Amino acid sequence: MHLELRHLRTVRAIHEQGGLARAAETLNITQSALSHQVKALEEQAGVELFVRRAKPMRLSAAGMRLLRLAEQVLPLVAATEAEFKGVEAGRVGRLHIAMECHACFDWLLPVLDIFRRAWPDVDVDIRQRLAFGALPALAREEVDLVISSDPEDVPGVTYQPLFDYAPTLVVPAGHPLVAKGFAEPQDLAGETLITYPMERGRLDVFSQFLTPAGVEPAHHRQVELTAVTLMLVASGRGVAVMPDWVLRREVANDELAMLPLGRGGILRRLFAAVREDDLSQPYMAHVLRLSRTEPLRMLRGSVA
């Protein structure tokens, strides 16, 4: 038996309307066309699907089985069609994010909280395991947005600037560098440098400060959590370099001091990498706009 969606819609309409005339009007076809469709369907099934002698016209036992199938299938089809319309209108989609920036959770989570209220039908996720292969994952469509400060030439990928930040040295309050007011690369040659567990090339302190000067810290220790790193620094067990937005809450901490890297400091830019084809999505434009404005409004603070 070859069933089509129109057959299921026909069975449901006749059951609900109680006759061919009203069902044909509901289905927007002629009564003659509907009658021929019912006859062809019954010939396929090999049984009568309707009791025509009854007033109103009602389903036979076999027809009731077909109605149960229609009641299961048609709502699923309608829901799928609605989803497709939502995708076409830009209301429905996927926003899976990977970050090459370990500390970006501080500003990204508040941004996503605002975003998901405006776009409840967009599937939002953060793919942490892809942090170190984020851009290839973007090209493979495993993720839809990558937060990065190191743009690479990837076909089909565009980089949207978000905001600038300053990598900042945090030291114990009594550290000799406090009197100097800033740090030079050689000042870290005798220090234990505490960093997030990332590749050196993706750590600003190495890529923008130490490596170009040919300087290595005395010791390099990796720590996952920002709070633990700051406790270690406060207790004199090392120094760290973090984005200024991470240190905003520590301005009043009298156990810590924050210093620029170099006399004039270093300024870096954070980008959102997205596939060029996705830029036209309304929800993508919105999350990019939030990512440019909300971190500056909510999170940026001066560091002393």
From TrEMBL:
This protein's record includes keyword Cytoplasm: yes
Transcription regulation as UniProt keyword: yes
Q: What organism is recorded for this protein?
A: Paracoccus seriniphilus
| Protein name as it appears in the record | HTH-type transcriptional regulator MetR
Q: Which segments constitute the HTH lysR-type domain?
A: 3-60
Location in the cell reads: Cytoplasm
Q: Gene Ontology cellular component? A: cytoplasm
- Primary site of residence: cytoplasm
Question: Which keywords annotate this record?
Answer: Activator, Amino-acid biosynthesis, Cytoplasm, DNA-binding, Methionine biosynthesis, Repressor, Transcription, Transcription regulation
Q: What does the entry give for GO biological process?
A: methionine biosynthetic process
This protein's source sits in the domain of life called Bacteria
Any GO molecular function? transcription cis-regulatory region binding
The family database entries (InterPro entries) matched by this protein are listed as: LysR_HTH_N (IPR000847), LysR_subst-bd (IPR005119), MetR_PBP2 (IPR037406), WH-like_DNA-bd_sf (IPR036388), WH_DNA-bd_sf (IPR036390)
Entry's family note: Belongs to the LysR transcriptional regulatory family.
